[in-house]
Amino acid sequence: AAAGRALPPAGRSKWDIREEVWEHLEASGLAEFPRPVRGRIPNFKGSLQACCSLRELEVFSRAREVKVDPDKPLEGARLAALQARKTLLVPTPRLRTGLFNRIVPPPGATKEVLRRCATSQGVRDFSVPVGLDSKAQVDLVVVGSVAVSEKGWRIGKGEGYADMEYAMMVSMGAVQEDTPVVTIVHDCQVLDIAEELLGDHDLTVDYILTPTRTIQTNCKRPKPQGIMWHKVSSEMLGKIPILKTLRWREKQAGKDVTLQDEHPALAHPKRAAIPHRKVMAADPQPWAAPGSAHVGSDPVNPKSEGSAPITTVYVGNLPGSLRVSQLKSALRELQVVPAALKWQGAQHRAFLAYREQGAAHRALSSLQGLSLGGNALRVELAKSHRNKG
């Protein structure tokens, strides 16, 4: 419990809290693969133990359909749902191709196969897309968090996807006001969060599971009542195809679906004063748009870019059969197109050059855990001049 109060809340922004949690997990040796944990829902030592507590919750026992996010620390929660023979729904990464996939293990799956189905690769290999008209009825929602308070206030990694997923489920009729929400974190991620940091679009949680505790928050703050279109940017709409469909449907139903950038009066009044990196969720960077940067065959020469520093991402363990076009295609699909790409197929590696550090961190996060040609990629920030033979 003392660890839960390690970060005093006074005057801290959500980004301050995120940075301190990420830093603490790394510095204390609690961080687990995928590393670094910065920029993601962090995996931590004891995550499986915390996930096992899910089975003891009555809301889990009663649930038939469970939605669990695809983050690594929630692998044990996905496994628990599969072992209990519940319908497991997992959101598609960054909601690119829809909202959910249903994980369908092969008939007679052994415990080992179920364990594989619960991994990120298994989610890709054993999943069936769930359409908007599937009439999904989610009985329990399990989300990852960077930080959470005992009152149920939650802070995610800052991209807004968990909040958006929940709002979309409300819009689809897949969750009700009383659908319980569980988050699974390390004890040190449970800390005081000032309520004024929460927006009306922020998802709150009803249960917190840690390696040592089960906390019922008795949170009375209402959860999001649907998609708040005035907080959605045109760019986010462009990246999440299913959002366009939901918007069209709500427009047909007579709802106001005016977007953030179509309705300047509703834009955040303090927005201009917020440092650039802190508005990533509401205003994703243009580099992320497909085809927004040319993928060349040679790395950018940093000197030719004036004073702009180049951040290079190392991608290793590429299979010998992989072609550069396949890697480029994956980068486009993941919306992490670099300014330049250096291909060293014979050495089973490539180097991706990004003009912005934020773009490089997004690439790290998106590529981590990705398999190409049957190989799990090894992805990390390259050391200076690492691309010497």
Automatic annotation (TrEMBL):
> Can you supply one Gene Ontology CC term for this chain's record?
cytoplasm
Domain RRM: residue ranges: 311-384
Any one Gene Ontology molecular-function term assigned to this protein's record: RNA binding
Q: Which InterPro entries match?
A: FTHF_cligase, FTHF_cligase-like_sf, NagB/RpiA_transferase-like, Nucleotide-bd_a/b_plait_sf, RBD_domain_sf, RRM_dom
Keyword RNA-binding set for record: yes
> Which keywords does this chain's UniProt record carry?
RNA-binding
Q: Which Gene3D superfamilies match?
A: 3.30.70.330, NagB/RpiA/CoA transferase-like
> Key word RNA-binding present in the record?
yes
Q: Where is this region: Disordered?
A: 285-305
What name does UniProt use for this protein? Methenyltetrahydrofolate synthase domain-containing protein
